[in-house]
UniProtKB/TrEMBL annotation:
It comes from the Bacteria. One of its GO terms (biological process) is NADP+ catabolic process. Residues 41-172 form the Nudix hydrolase domain. SUPFAM superfamilies: Nudix. Its cofactor is Mg(2+). It holds the Pfam family NUDIX. This is NUDIX domain-containing protein. The keyword Nucleotide-binding does not apply. Keywords: Hydrolase, Magnesium, Metal-binding. The keyword Magnesium applies. GO terms for cellular component: cytosol.
């Protein structure tokens, strides 16, 4: 078990502060004092599969930890009370200054995202996205740059996330059929 797993990191009940906040076998914690029950669930995240007119796939470089400098698919976390579709459009606008014209669900893949010394488990939802125009594309927010790759030239060893590698490999098979 990773030292960043919530079982290894979370020590106190967030409701009453009791240090006897016991990890349970159902992926939850139970406070022995106030009986608060906290489940460790997956957080929703979105990823955009964007292809230009040349058939190249858009990848971004992470500007921040975790995995700073590694390649990634553009996207990010779904905010509280936000739809997945809204998050997808917001993230692509924030990171690349692009507007999605159309999106279609492709697949999901689980991931472990280590942030601040704790594992945040995500379910990454990938969408195939058509972009209105690439004219104003610009690297912003938490990405340092963007790069287009022909599917057969993607440097998979430079991609940080396990889920992003799996999604990209499935997408390449899908577009080559």
């Amino acid at each position: 078990m990773s030292p960043t797993n919530p079982e290894k990191v979370i020590r106190f009940c967030p409701k009453c502060g009791n240090p006897e906040f016991i990890y349970q076998t159902d992926n939850s914690f139970l406070c022995t004092q106030c009986k608060f029950h906290l489940y460790v669930n997956s957080a929703a995240a979105v990823a955009a599969l964007i292809v230009n007119d040349k058939g190249e796939i858009l990848l971004t470089r992470r500007a921040v930890e975790p995995q700073k400098g590694m390649l990634d698919l553009p996207g990010g976390f779904v905010d509280v009370m936000e739809t997945v579709e809204t998050a997808l459009g917001r993230e692509i606008k924030e990171e690349l200054n692009l507007e999605i014209e159309e999106s279609k669900y492709f697949m999901s893949y689980p991931n472990e995202y280590v942030f601040g010394g704790i594992s945040v488990f995500t379910i990454d939802l990938a969408y195939i996205c058509a972009i209105k125009s690439f004219n104003k594309i610009d690297a912003k927010d938490d990405i340092s740059s963007f790069e287009f790759y022909r599917p057969e030239e993607i440097p998979f060893n430079d991609i940080g996330g396990t889920s992003m590698k799996a999604i990209l490999k499935a997408f390449i098979k899908y577009i080559q059929v």
